[in-house]
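Quick start: what a row looks like.
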Amino acid sequence: MTEKNLLLAIFEDIDPAAQAVDKLRALGIQDEHVTVISGTPITEAMLGRKPKWSNVNRFAGGGALVGFAVGCFLAFGTPQMYPIIVGGQPLIPVPPSIVVLFEMTMLVMLISTFLGVFLDSRFPSYTPTEYVAEISDGRIALLIECATDLEKNVETSLKEIGAESVKRAQAEAL
């Protein structure tokens, strides 16, 4: 089994970083072994990577369905259980029922979306993470896990593309 090393490549702009991701893919390094570290949000599409799958949409949709069911119970079930007959008014008034349905659907959907984001991001994370001081200055870093025999090839390729520095990543005290 080949030994894996962590390389840290620092780029000043997003274009060379995107070219570097393509070059790493051409060298046989899969996207799972490349981590992009940036101080600004960079989408997968900006770097030519496949979008990551997220379960937040499922949480939101499930929350909306549960909220709609709770709203239906409140709007239609409660008047059936406790009927209050008011002269000339229907037992289930439509305009207030629409408001209750909407509000309960949105309330439970928002709560479940928050929980979905919370759970999908695996927050809180107790595993050690990488910190690169140059990121605070607006740089973009690529943390690359590669085999020892590919290390020199990766380093020269990234320097040709425009990496400011390519070095082995190591733990640093903050």
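That is the whole record. The mean pLDDT is 86. The two ends are 33 Å apart (CA to CA).
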